[in-house]
Amino acid sequence: MTAPLLSVRNLGRKFVQKPSAVAVAASLLTTGKRPVQKAVRAVNDISFDLGPGEALGLVGESGCGKSTVARLITGLITPDQGAITYKGETLAAMARKDRLKIQMVFQDPLGSLDPRMRLGDQIAEGVRVHNIVPAAELKDYLAGIFADCGIDPVLAQRYPHQVSGGQRQRFGIARALAMKPDLVICDEPVAALDVSIQAQVINLLARLRRERGLSYIFISHDLNVVRHLCDRVAVMYLGKLIEIGDAAEVLSDPRHPYTSALGDAAPRVTLDAQEFRAIKGEIPSPLNPPKGCFFNPRCSLATDLCRSEAPELRDLGARKVACHTPL
Amino acid sequence: MLLEIKNLEVVFPMRQGDLRVLHGIDLAVEKGEILGLVGESGSGKSVLSKAVMGLLAKPGRASGGEILFQGQDLLKADAKALRSLRGNRIAMIFQDPMATLNPVLRIDAQMLEAVQGHRKMPSAEARRLCIEALRKVGIPAPEERFLNYPHQLSGGMRQRIAIATALLNDPDLILADEATTALDVTIQAQILSEMKALCRESGTALVWVTHDLAVVSGIADRIAVMYAGRIVECGPTQEVLSRPKHPYTQGLLDSVPSAAQRGQDLRQIPGLMPSPSALPPGCAFNPRCLRAKEACRSNQPVMTQTPTGAFACFNPLSEGDRA
């Protein structure tokens, strides 16, 4: 790989659960001490690189911290551990203008678009505020973006609630593209869409990447979509990275028992009587993660070592796996 | 036949006149059968399941046809008769368990009501029945969970409770409307395998309503595909998935990314599903269909019976088209 576009080192972020006033009072009255604050390590010591033009899939169950990683990289929240460097510069020290090169597409375009502003104006606003193109060229520039995203220009005059979900997501993508980004972070961009519309948006994202040389961090719980769009895939579990490597290899020949279980659980259109091989149990509460490897209570291969010591992410051939007993 | 829907029409009265959202639905479910009802949003699949339950949102109403459940027409049944069927002989599981469960009542109160509302039973016995049902759907420590409020449980747990409640009275038919759509794939896999086993064991018929063909491919005996308020194709799961006749079914199958197409464009269905107030003339799918002929743009195709199923298309896919 050439110099990475984005490099994430030992990234961590904690969220502290503030005890309620009642809990504080109760604790003071009974023990005379303030209650212990519970903290969730939403993202725990994560490192990876992303090359220019590369697409990295980030998968895991809800609550595994994948969206927090996205928010950390876009700078929407700050890390309390580790560093993110973009083109060799740390994110915290970057000028605002350079930060525009990292854009985000959200899952729910209805939540990320202003309901009281015409769609076209919303896209134009960012371009104008950040002087992406001279004012005289604004109109042509937007027309070009709309054409690229397969948006009928007539729809630009409408409000978000007046267009379909698929069209709204196209506007969500157009808004990110209008900033001329190098890196687009897509947080479940097709999860809320119908199957036939999903295919349209997936094709659009693939084409934009080809034509503009974009890098993607593609967050999804749908392994089929990730395998289709991404070069590499990173699997997260309870805030930790547990396996990372070439997307086709990791998904067809997983080495971490969790990756394997995730693949087995994903429904596929098959003609054989499909037995859903389910992982036992649910993802543990991040407030109270199990000792040792976080996956051990659900893992059929867990040993005593797994129950006492958390595995490090180690090189295993071309990929990295955090497991004491890899498959 | 356990459930037989004949020529069902559902309309929503609007100022401009009645808006028809279901057009002549014919569907039958046998005892113990698992039927996958597949369609995208707006296809009418939820309206259909609600019509069977007699839960159509006012002012929506069935304007024609029959829904025969064990020979009794549910559309003609009075409120009292429906009440004794619902939750008893026919149960429904909704997408969002938080909307099914009452947030201010504990699980025990809600489940006991479902039992004792339909039959006289001493509380201790009803309690045992409920806890047994919770254990069956794989809830750990059911005695403790039984005393929790819904907000104290995870989404997967809540959906299991909704399923356990549906199973309480040993219904003959369960309607599950996108019951696992909001859950993680791992939890979805658990619930699907449990539902399948439970239905097989008790001989309960199940109608699994979903937009996800992959989900039904693993669970259903038969599949019915809906588009714009009509059933466009139905048949045995294997048959529909391996040899779809309707171009829409084929389009849905092609839209799912598979390992083989990695890096290539997916074959997408162009355009959008039409709104029920602006259906195109002829076959509702014709503006999005690459196989549309002249007849498709002017006439409504009727269901053509095949040895195993049926489809509504003037220009169905044949063996040669799929090669």
TrEMBL record, chain A:
Signal peptide: none
TM helices/strands, residue ranges: none
GO molecular function: ATP binding
SUPFAM superfamilies to which the protein is assigned, alphabetical: P-loop containing nucleoside triphosphate hydrolases
Keywords annotated in UniProt: ATP-binding, Nucleotide-binding, Transport
Xref: InterPro entries: AAA+_ATPase, ABC_transp_ATP-bind, ABC_transporter-like_ATP-bd, ABC_transporter-like_CS, Oligopep_ABC_C, P-loop_NTPase
PROSITE patterns in UniProt: ABC_TRANSPORTER_1 (PS00211), ABC_TRANSPORTER_2 (PS50893)
Domain annotation ABC transporter: ranges: 26-263
The protein, known as: ATP-binding cassette domain-containing protein
Organism: Pseudogemmobacter lacusdianii
The organism's taxonomic lineage, starting at the top: Bacteria, Pseudomonadati, Pseudomonadota, Alphaproteobacteria, Rhodobacterales
Automatic annotation (TrEMBL), chain B:
GO molecular function ontology, one term from the record: ATP binding
Pfam families per UniProt: ABC_tran, oligo_HPY
Alphabetical list of Gene3D superfamilies matching this protein: P-loop containing nucleotide triphosphate hydrolases (3.40.50.300)
Main location: membrane
The keyword Cell membrane is assigned to this record: yes
CDD domains given in the database record: ABC_NikE_OppD_transporters (cd03257)
Protein's cellular compartments: Cell inner membrane
Membrane-related topology note: Peripheral membrane protein
Record key words, sorted: ATP-binding, Cell membrane, Membrane, Nucleotide-binding, Transport
PROSITE patterns the UniProt entry points to: ABC_TRANSPORTER_1 (PS00211), ABC_TRANSPORTER_2 (PS50893)
Residue intervals of the ABC transporter domain: 5-253
UniProt record similarity statement: Belongs to the ABC transporter superfamily.
Protein name, UniProt field: ABC transporter ATP-binding protein
